[in-house]
């Protein structure tokens, strides 16, 4: 609404006062508001791939914007773009300018959007969940770049985030919203030390425990292997016919009933590996065995049986749930595909397993919150009674209170149904809470695998040490929250 990006045919704007400096935004014409976007106000969003043109190089599209907004010549626009790319930490800005968006990791694309803001130097930058999909190291880089914009150019930043751990690091003031209303406004440190509203206290209570050294070691599981992966290699081709090894000679196994965490920086190959297990990507070489049955080269019937036994839940359930179908239809679809019970009673039972009532069946995905949609996606995965779930960043886009409820739900499902879980997650605090063992990927390779507690206490690989150090640094900025009151 501040950027005037909402369709005024669908949304009604009301405000007593809305000013940017000495500019009254309520009296501006539509043309003046458009001109204000860029230098006056700019925005970066959670998914930079939706803001970057996929058929244009990074340099070319940034130059177009800079030329139009700053009225520069082509050569001056190019210099401005290269300087901005260098300012956000790219060692070779010319190589980045020549790159296509799909060739860059999520963290790099987010820094490009900050470079875009750096070049235009807006008075106000609205950063809408800019770190949600990033690993801890890239989160810290993005926060540093936002702070640089503040200190070097005097840019005011409105940081929208559900991760309260970031606030002491960057925020001066904090506004807490619930159901469209502002329920608390305070200094960042005061929010942690003396939150005034019950909702603020609940958000702080639901933060995952800080990563710490020397915690209790989980008892090692002695179950049989459910999934065995050996020497798995997956190659992609870029549009220049250059081969990119997304997964390189990866080997591991998942035990029955085990929760295995999979972590690493953005672009390490985690999601590619997860999708390859279901044969959504075709591997170049290696072996994937589910209860001894080889999946690479399996026939149609064998592959369908494997996909019935292994289900995946994605980060954004809206991309997996058809907006045109009711929840009942969405639950019936996999049941019919696998030739299973698609009755109303079975669908209700799967909803009950994820703590949802039967009355949701007649509604469509848009009617639910993000946490409810994630539960519906889990219920859909449970329709086939799988032996294993793959959760691909399932928790990262949720606020902490919803996140903790999904964590408890996953733990209960794994315990009660003896389901194995491959949890793709960049948050080591959540892995400390959930995972029996954790695997670390770097540049397509599996560089370390072991009990999560041991991996956090005594990481053996340099990259793992870097990840743990970054998480410890993030948690160190969090002031101690007040103890929760206990009813007598």
Stated plainly, the CATH topology of the largest domain is called Rossmann fold
Tell me about the biggest sheet? 6 strands, mixed
Spatially, the strands of the biggest sheet line up as 13-14-15-10-16-17
Number of strands: 17
CATH class of the largest domain reads: Alpha Beta
Helix content: 25-40%
What's the rounded overall pLDDT mean? 87
Q: Name the CATH architecture of the largest domain.
A: 3-Layer(aba) Sandwich
CATH homologous superfamily grouping of the largest domain: P-loop containing nucleotide triphosphate hydrolases
Class of secondary structure makeup: alpha/beta
CA-CA gap between termini: 45 Å
C-alpha geometry: globular
Low-confidence stretches: 483-488
Total count of helical runs of at least 4 residues: 18
Q: What share of residues are in beta strands? A: 15-25%
**What is the CA-based Rg, rounded?**
24 Å
Total individual domains:
2
Can you characterise this structure?
- The longest helix has 18 residues.
- This protein folds into two domains: 187 residues, Rossmann fold (3-Layer(aba) Sandwich), CATH 3.40.50.300; 252 residues, P-loop containing nucleotide triphosphate hydrolases (Rossmann fold), CATH 3.40.50.
- The C terminus is likely disordered.
- Helix 15 links the parallel strand 14 and strand 15.
- Helix 2 packs parallel to helix 5 and helix 13 packs across helix 14.
- The strands form five sheets. A six-stranded mixed β-sheet has the order 13-14-15-10-16-17, with helices on both faces.
- It is an alpha/beta fold and 488 residues long.
- It has 18 helices and 17 strands.
